[in-house]
Write a structure and sequence with these properties.
Elements (H helix, E strand, L loop, with lengths): L5 H11 L10 H13 L9 H44 L5
Length: about 100
């Protein structure tokens, strides 16, 4: 195909840069990870129904407040954008339609 040896050089580079892959199922590797995983398990606090309801209510209130802020900022941005576009067209002297 006549690539001038560039493809052959690329293949040789890829072949030389391969790393040795270790299996996940090696016994040495498996012993190390199980001892690390046993000591690093996450522990969660148990909540009763009342506390769980309060947390849920607080999350809903925060989400509602965030949605309100996003809606207000979006409306303000759209109004300012419309005013800017209108001002640019009126200032340039070209008709809008």
């Amino acid at each position: 195909m006549g690539f001038g040896g560039s493809v052959a050089a690329m293949l040789a580079t890829l072949k030389n840069n391969k790393r040795e892959r270790t299996s996940r199922f090696d016994s040495k590797h498996r012993m190390n990870t199980t001892s690390q995983n046993a000591s690093s398990k996450l522990v969660f606090k148990k909540l009763n129904d009342k506390d769980l309801y309060e947390v849920k209510k607080q999350i809903q209130q925060n989400a509602h407040a965030h949605n309100k802020k996003v809606a207000v900022l979006t409306i303000i941005s759209l109004v300012l954008l419309a005013a800017l576009i209108l001002w640019l067209f009126l200032d340039s002297g070209t008709p809008l339609v």
